[in-house]
Amino acid sequence: MPLGLLVLLVAVGIAGIAVLLHLTGHSRAFEIDSEATARREWHRHCPEDEVRAVLVAANHRAALIEGAQGRGLLWSFGADTTAQQFDRVEVTDRPDGLILRLGSFTAPAVRLHLSPEERAQWRARLTGATP
Predict the structure, then answer these.
(1) For 82-92, what is each residue's pLDDT tens digit?
(2) Alpha-carbon torsion 20, 23, 28, 34, what sign?
């Protein structure tokens, strides 16, 4: 088989798989739609931590976790979630939300899309001035 034809078949095959995954809904971002979902996902990442409080973002893409081992952030990362516990966080305001600098090599900064009301609530929780 000529190399050009093989490259074409591979490219069409990969594109076909991508389209099929998208059409079947497997390319949607994970939604953290409730406190129960946030707790379940947090325990999947940090099974030893006891969750005390959860604050879920209105866009269902992130949740702030207060656990027995400290604070943490759970956020949608494609069709899955990822979590990061932190001791300190640097919070920067943006017109569309917040940027959290977690000081971790694996997740140095996370950009959250939050409404102005949510932004104030999240900032208060992150800086320790919980209303």
Answers:
(1) 999 988 889 99
(2) negative
